[in-house]
């Protein structure tokens, strides 16, 4: 009993000390930018890489004198545990840390409930990687303090549909969709709508539960209706890896290829099922192997090679958000929420880290001007074949 | 809404749900891995009634709880009559919760399927949630200390003996499941009006596990134990924010340490109550009064 008490009290002391370390070192009045992301657990690569990239950018800003003559500080919080975390983290960022703006979270279900909170606090929130309901209310009105720092996910599915119909001459597509994930369902709906309105045919539809590893039954059924492509907008790349392997095993992979979205544009996938995915097409917001990213990737690898995580597109979307905020703060000349909000709404032709010049639409708070890249898997690598806008 | 306020609201939402699990798992001894399913039903029913039909949120939460309670009959009646218990019952409940999740993911009118229900009015403030929480804890306490509670404990301790002395085991178990599902439904409704957005995945197996963990962590056979455990488990991830990426590791580690040193949970089957303190203060006062009198 005594021993336990001692251990627990030691642990408590340890935790308290750590929190003191975190609170200490208060510089005079820096501009604080909050960040919410998954930085522990299975999806830790999402948040940790983003934090590294954002911190680098901010270090660079600080070395050059900061914004408005003030230093900039990143306050990153982890929201991996469950849905309640993004609300808690946002409340904490606003009330305890008094941040100027918040970047993230990167999942729509985490970002959607935050609209009211940031509106009351008048703190701009810039989520990245999320669906239409993030910036829009049910009635279509825009949430005044939420701005998207990435393309609306369903846009890419629409563009992909028109690419495969017009450029590749595909007429028969089957879909394989996880029905419990908002991202997958949203992508599927957008693709089907765009593809059928162009005149294409969805020949078969199958679904699977999250974290499925066995796809043989669905693939066999889909293959019976002889599609040219299977559209699989999975959010988890392992599912695509397994499906591709099993498609090859069943002997369909010569006639049927896979179509996908940026949800599984993760370099690790090529290690799992590179050869099996040969010939698969997907659409992404930006291609990381494009020479324009060479600098930022080498830079990242040099500084954060020890993280053992590759730089991914979502981290760059987070960086886009930071660039939006930087532009808005400098433009507004102030760190007041309403002023930054107005400046964000008026962003025009801002050059962002993912390439292209972005303009924010004041009616939807979505960026316009983002380009999409069509990627083909060749020799176990993601290779961009063209840039395409509808 | 303040940071501390938000955490307090979350605590009271969790406590309401955990009270449901206390009745079923802590006192009746039926392990369940599916209480998130009842929360899901309560949350969706309450949210839909208020959002589309304009029913006041307290009433729709009540209806949500009742429907969750009724739905527990679907799985409860056949399993409990068949004397399913232990792991088997737990897994039947898990299956129920999973099927609810998949069902809601595929219903589009009103439920909006996997895309999730958004635009639920924000109704849960600190006062409302604390009052609901207090009522539920008081109810749980009174119920479990009544004749009903004694019957449940007898079933937990020795089911055959309980049956021999004339306890209608199936009926009592079913009653405990109904109440348990009702409370979880209410908790789900509170969650809906606090989050203002939910998808069927909000009510994942993890949520059931967390509630079960709070009951085991706090002590089976105690009410105050799991309530305290819920408070700790809700606050802990927030307190650990300072350690960033190691947060969830330390969270898990602390739970392991407590379970190693106190396998019966924080309080075992005891209760923390203010009564002994009050008694002692009264006694001291009496003694003081006496000494003062004698001194005179």
UniProtKB/TrEMBL annotation, chain A:
Residues 1-24 form the signal peptide. Keywords: Signal. The keyword Signal applies. It comes from the Bacteria. SUPFAM superfamilies: Periplasmic binding protein-like I. Residues 30-378 form the Leucine-binding protein domain. The keyword Signal applies. Pfam families: Peripla_BP_6 (PF13458). This is ABC transporter substrate-binding protein. Belongs to the leucine-binding protein family.
UniProtKB/TrEMBL annotation, chain B:
It comes from the Bacteria. PANTHER family: HIGH-AFFINITY BRANCHED-CHAIN AMINO ACID TRANSPORT PROTEIN BRAE, HIGH-AFFINITY BRANCHED-CHAIN AMINO ACID TRANSPORT SYSTEM PERMEASE. The chain crosses the membrane at residues 7-33, 53-76, 88-108, 120-141, 177-197, 212-236, 248-267. GO terms for cellular component: plasma membrane. Keywords: Cell membrane, Membrane, Transmembrane, Transmembrane helix. GO terms for molecular function: branched-chain amino acid transmembrane transporter activity. It is a multi-pass membrane protein. It is found in: Cell membrane. CDD domains: TM_PBP1_LivM_like. This is Branched-chain amino acid ABC transporter permease. Its main location: membrane.
